[in-house]
Amino acid sequence: MQTYYYIRVSSKEQNTIRQEVKAKEYSIPRECVYIERVSGKNITERPVLTNLMASLKNGDKLIVDSISRFARNTKDLLELVEQLNSKGIIFISLKEAIDTTTPTGVFMLTVFGAVAQLERDYIKDRQKEGISIAVSEGKYKGRKAIKVPKLWDKYYKMYKENTIKAIDVMKILGLKKTTFYKLINQYKENN
């Protein structure tokens, strides 16, 4: 049985020292401390967490500073904890005093996960309201609108008729995948 500690900060500029001190307080060996410096929006884009989850074995223990450092929404949290439970891994979140070896710990995990997601949703709503106000006052300097390529209509029609693949349209028009699909959504809204 081994104890691991997962640390995450949202950017490379943020400091991990506070979380590392906690890991030392629990006498966790340095090689069992996993540090991730990425935004946590999508768990599939967190390679350190993916590697950690793969290396955990039955009877191991995973400690995190708080739920928000481990998962960004209730669905992801519950899926991750289910993966841990299926492998016989104990999950502990220090801030929320959650220990999944107890029924109360499992219940509290669900409640705190929902509260954390609610807070993130509130933050998103406040951000949208702030942007809306800034736009109405002419102060918003957000990302420039995507410029539609000159031959977009022609290649979009071919794409919709399945005479050309999306990847080929992207290459011909010099578009990245996200830009291509944003243009499709924008085109659908306007037509």
Structure description:
- The active site is at residue 10.
- Pfam families: Resolvase.
- Residues 2-138 form the Resolvase/invertase-type recombinase catalytic domain.
- With 191 residues, the protein is an alpha/beta fold.
- It folds into two domains: 3-116, Resolvase, N-terminal catalytic domain (Rossmann fold, 3-Layer(aba) Sandwich); 152-190.
- The chain has eight helices and five strands; from the N terminus they run βαβαβααββαααα.
- It has helices spanning 17-25, 47-55, 67-70, 74-86, 103-136, 152-160, 166-173, 177-190; strands spanning 3-9, 33-37, 61-64, 90-93, 98-99.
- It has a five-stranded mixed beta sheet, with helices on both faces.
- α4 packs antiparallel against α5.
- The protein is elongated.
- The model has no long low-confidence stretch (mean pLDDT 87).
